[in-house]
Amino acid sequence: MMKLFLSVITVSLNSEVTIEKTIQSVLNQNFTSFEYIIVDGNSSDNTIKIIKKYESKFHQKNIQFTWISEPDSGIYNAWNKGLKLAKGNWISFLGSDDIYLDNVLEKYASVILANQNADFIHSKVKLMDKNKVKFIFSDTWKWTEFRRYMKIAHVGSFHNRKYFEKYGNFNEKYKIVGDYEMLLRAKDTLKTVFIDEFTAEMNDGGVSNQNVVRAFSEARIAKISTVHVLKPIAYFDFYFSLLKYYMSSFLKKMNLNLRKK
């Protein structure tokens, strides 16, 4: 049987408020056949101090721990740096404001060992806003839907190294949806496995949430250039997604105002 070794990559930039919880959630896993890599973008706050604080703790648990800190050109440039450092058969990307739930790496390991020919293994993920669940990602992957909309959470998922070897690393021209574009490359041949359990919580403060128009615009470009979705359809998806987003925001504000009265 293949000896399983996982790589978990976290990218950070001035993440002193959140990264300690992220690191602790990785360190506290009971499964230890993995390495943890932090790629920092030359933080100017206390992020590096926090990272150094945990270096010896990983070594005490016999978990390989690597970190670098240098300027980068964006998330996917940093993720590609992490890929170059990674030694694992399977690779995950955990944001510096996201956390793993207890003992989920052990769960992932068992699913991976039973599905070694898969490309991508993902799970249910909670999107959090001030300690409250704002949204739950829980969809299985379906090509007919995925080619139009990114409906699965990249957080709390693992990628087969062989997928990157076949399709290449992240396209750094994208600043928000490079993870979506990368998975689109396999089209309907992408082999996925869904774990019907929660494995991670992501904070509702990510780049895509702060730049909604750009995120939808990049998704439109990715669909046209990578899977050749017809332009009228891609533009329809773009405006429809924007309309849904703004309608949802408007209704939430209305409900909030009603509660205050």
Describe this structure in words.
With 261 residues, the chain is an alpha/beta fold. The chain has one domain (6-205): Alpha-Beta Complex (Spore Coat Polysaccharide Biosynthesis Protein SpsA, Chain A). 43% of the residues lie in helices and 22% in strands. It contains 10 helices and 9 strands. Strands 1, 2, 3, 4, 5, 6, 7, 8 and 9 form a 9-stranded mixed sheet that branches. A hairpin with a 2-residue loop joins strand 6 (120-129) and strand 7. Helix 9 (212-226) runs antiparallel to helix 10. The longest helix is centred in the last third of the chain and has 30 residues, at 231-260. The N and C termini lie far apart (63 Å).
Keywords:
261 residues; alpha/beta; Spore Coat Polysaccharide Biosynthesis Protein SpsA, Chain A; 10 helices; 22% strand; globular
Quaternary form: single chain
**CATH-derived architecture:** Alpha-Beta Complex
Determine and state the CATH class: Alpha Beta
Shape: globular
Mean of the pLDDT scores?
92
> For the terminal residues, how far apart are their CA atoms?
63 Å
Largest sheet: 9 strands, mixed
Radius of gyration: 19 Å
Q: What would you give as the CATH superfamily?
A: Spore Coat Polysaccharide Biosynthesis Protein SpsA, Chain A
Query: What percentage of residues falls in helices of 4 or more residues?
Result: 40-55%
Number of separate structural domains: 1
Q: Count of DSSP helices?
A: 10
| Uncertain parts | none
Structural class: alpha/beta
